[in-house]
Amino acid sequence: MPGSLAPEAGPLPKRLLSPASMQRITSRLHFVRSLTCRFAGLVVLAASAALVAPAVAQPGGGPPPPQALPAPPVPLQNPLTAEKAILGKILFWDEQLASDGTVACGTCHIPGAGGADPRLGLTPTHPGPDGVLGTQDDLFGSHGVRRTNAFGHYVADGAFDFEVQATGRTSPSMIGAAYFPRLFWDGRASGTFTDPTTGVVVIPNGGALESQSLGPILNDIEMAGEGRSWQDVFDRLEAAKPLGLATNLPGDVGLAIALDPTYPALFQRAFGTPTINAQRIAFALASYQRTLIPDQSKFDAVARGQAAFTQAEQRGWGAFNSAGSRCNACHTGALLSDGAFHNLGLRPLAEDQGRFDVTGVAADRGRFKTPSLRNVGLRQRLFHTGVQPNLQGVLAVYDADGGQFPQNKDPLLNGLTVPVQVRADIIALLNTLTDPRVAAQSAPFHRPTLRSELPASNPMSLGFGAVAGSGGFVPTIVAATPPREGHSGFRIGLHNALGGQIAFLRLRAQSLPVNPMGAAFRDALPRAQVLDGIGAGHGFGTWYDLDATAPALVGLTYDTQWWIRDAGAVGGVAKSEVVRVTIEPR
Q: To the nearest 10°, the Cα dihedral for 340, 346, 349, 351?
């Protein structure tokens, strides 16, 4: 299959990339290596700059010709190999990389959504700077994990309480990220990659993907509990079955795991030894993303002379490059991005200062990176705030010379005109930038099904049993982490109860393991605890035990429910609803 990462059979699969892709990559690597002695740092920067160079206008004043997308630049220190790419793909889609096993890198970066987050619907997910949902500053961020402290206990967050947290910006597309010299909306992931555990600069130039890839893993909103260390990550991967929570594995991934069924074995194949460390995780994740080359769009076919624009698309291309619309002032070159940072005036500067927080340069206040327009028609939300749900809305913003907050707004926006009569044509053009393989999630953009994408079945709420306590507050059970054998992150929380009271978790077994009276089973039994918090509705606590998912308990199914001593409840006991849990094998 063209673009597939499927390896050949045999003990050492070396061709996880298609012949055409490998030829392009190999040619680029040979070229880069030929310049190593004198231009090792400059060559990657030059390759990146070529992607955003504006096209030369046609003689006679017509729009410039479209530019096809080349292979992305590759830093010398992390040459692209099939083994690293497949390891990176497995890591990218593994929810076990998160502390609680509920979020993968790919959770917020789905190919079918243009490499961005498909969960950003009509309702904002982040309350914005005022901390209150339903107000003007609300944002469309990506859901991450519930807040847990350094002891693994659920704690209230000022903005999200005990619910899943969300990021303060929308997730940018990871498809095309390999072409940018700086990543994240504010560009804080630079081309200089420094190993976070040693402080050693590993890639001086061209390592933005490596720099970016490690950020979410320890971020206590996106994937981590507070205080998570890199050693915690390494220990988790050592014990985890690769993609153990995912289903419908693509053929390339399934074969790689069949050959090397543990992460140490996969790291052995990719790097020569089984050691798992931060640098290798970054190298693998970056290598995978460099195989995601969205160069089979109609736009690319037109650029190669293999197809022609329709009349509407041609009109759209003319309007895109016109003196009035000037879309090409920022969306230029093969990437359809200048890679620079601009302030569109979407929100007041005090709410999010963007690039300024990285550089400290006053002129950078409110500036955010120009995204590539490739596959933009697949994205659910647009701009870093997610304020616009479609391209019509985006074009209307530009027709109004940007947003409503002029302070420090980019002068490029002055005098823009994107009249209604040209918008349909521009959108027709933008839809030519959709790679059909991305839309269909076919190779190399194929992926597994994540556990979080399926209806919740384990733990599973049974929807009954709740008894309100003082003040009419109904205790709320929190049971979201996968109860997988050996998963130390498995825990069951409680909130919305009467603070300072004794609470305990009731278990009623539906089935018993072979040795139900074994030490592991006894250790997994609930223990009473005094809830944190003061007053009605403010009590909270967390139960977990390192032996709760011990091998002796695999197959055990039990119903669990929080009981809280509360004189204000019927019978003197407030109760959460009942949740059913089954301990799954690794």
A: -110
Q: What Cα–Cα distance (Å) separates residue 288 from each residue in 106, 182, 372, 444, 576?
A: 12, 18, 19, 10, 44
pLDDT digits (tens, 9 = 90+) for 489-510: 899 999 999 999 999 998 888 7
| Cα–Cα distances in angstroms (integers) from residue 142 to residues 170, 412, 433, in the given order | 6, 30, 24
SS (H, E, C) 295-349: CCCHHHHHHCCCCCCCHHHHHHHHHHCCCCCCHHHCCCCCCCCCCCEECCCCCCC
Contact between 476 and 575 (Cβ < 8 Å): no
- When pLDDT is averaged across residues 330-339 and rounded to a whole number, the result is 97
Write out the two tokens for 51: 């992607």
Please indicate, yes or no, whether the overall pTM of this predicted structure exceeds 0.85: yes
As a whole number of angstroms, the distance between CA 304 and CA 481 comes to: 49
Taking the CB of residue 264, how many other CB atoms lie within 10 A of it? 14
d(CA 97, CA 237): 7
The continuous run of DSSP H or E covering 285 comes out as: helix 278-289
Task: Give CA–CA dist 164/160, Å, rounded.
Answer: 7
Question: Which neighbouring-strand residues pair with 110?
Answer: 116
> Which domains does the chain show, CATH number per domain?
1-53+69-113+173-296+445-454 (1.10.760.10), 297-434 (1.10.760.10), 460-582 (2.60.40)
**Mean pLDDT computed over 463-467:** 95
Per residue in 52-70, pLDDT tens? 666 555 555 678 899 999 9
Distance between CA 93 and CA 109 in Å, rounded? 10
The SS3 assignment for 84 reads helix
